[in-house]
Design a protein that fits this description.
alpha/beta
C-alpha cells in the first residue's frame, strides 16, 4: 500500500517568506520538495536521516550553490538531487555547482532548465561531476565519461599551464573549436550506436 502525505515546513514569523518546503513519503521513500530559496528544511535532523531525494524548484543556481550544497552533504542518505525551473543558463555557473556537489549525490537531474538544450551540457556535467552515475535519469556509461574527459581535459590542461592568462573555455580559438566539434560528434555518434 502506498502512503503519501506532505508536511509544510513553516518559517518563523520574523523572516520573510522566501519559499517553502514539504516532505513527501511514498512507501518507504522520503522526498523533500523545496520551492523557492528556503533551505532551512535541509538542516532538520529528522529529514537528514530519512530523505533519499531532494527536489528544488524556482531557486537560482547561485543561491542553491551558496546556501544548499553544504547542507546537502549532511544528508548522507540523500542520493538524488533534482533541479527544475532554476534559471540555469550558463555552463560556467553549472561547472562551479557540479564541482561542489557532495559525494553522496550520485543522481542529478537538471531537466526543465534552459541549459539542457545545449549539446555540450551533458558531457560538461559528466566531466565536472565525477561522482555521478545518473544524469537526467540516464545512466552515465564509461564510454561517455571517457569521451567527456577527452573533450574537456585539454582545455583544463591549457588553463593550468598558463595561470597568468585568463582562458575562457567559452571563447575558444578556431583549432580548439574544431577539436570540440569533432569530439562532440564522436560522443553523439557513440551514444547513437549504443542505443
Amino acid at each position: 500500500m502506498i502512503k503519501q502525505y506532505r508536511r509544510k515546513m513553516n518559517p518563523p514569523a520574523r523572516l520573510p517568506m522566501k519559499g517553502y518546503a514539504e516532505e513527501g513519503i511514498i512507501g518507504s521513500t522520503h522526498r523533500l520538495y523545496i520551492y523557492g530559496a528556503d533551505f532551512r528544511a535541509l538542516v532538520d535532523p529528522k529529514l537528514q536521516e530519512n530523505v533519499i531525494e531532494v527536489l528544488i524548484q524556482y531557486a537560482p543556481l547561485s543561491i542553491i550553490q551558496n546556501e544548499a550544497v553544504k547542507k546537502l552533504s549532511h544528508m548522507t542518505k540523500t542520493k538524488q538531487l533534482t533541479l527544475s525551473h532554476n534559471y540555469i543558463t550558463s555552463l560556467r555557473e553549472l561547472c562551479f555547482f557540479c564541482q561542489q556537489l557532495p559525494d553522496n549525490i550520485t543522481c542529478l537531474s537538471i531537466k526543465e532548465n534552459e541549459i539542457t538544450s545545449l549539446k555540450l551540457y551533458r558531457p560538461w556535467v559528466i566531466f565536472n561531476a565525477p561522482n555521478l552515475t545518473f544524469l537526467d535519469g540516464i545512466r552515465i556509461s564509461e564510454n561517455e565519461r571517457a569521451s567527456s574527459d577527452r573533450l574537456f581535459r585539454p582545455m583544463v590542461s591549457m588553463s593550468l599551464r598558463n595561470p597568468k592568462k585568463e582562458h575562457d573555455f567559452f571563447k575558444m580559438n578556431t583549432k580548439v573549436k574544431y577539436s570540440v566539434r569533432k569530439t562532440l560528434s564522436e560522443i553523439i555518434e557513440g551514444a547513437l550506436l549504443m542505443n
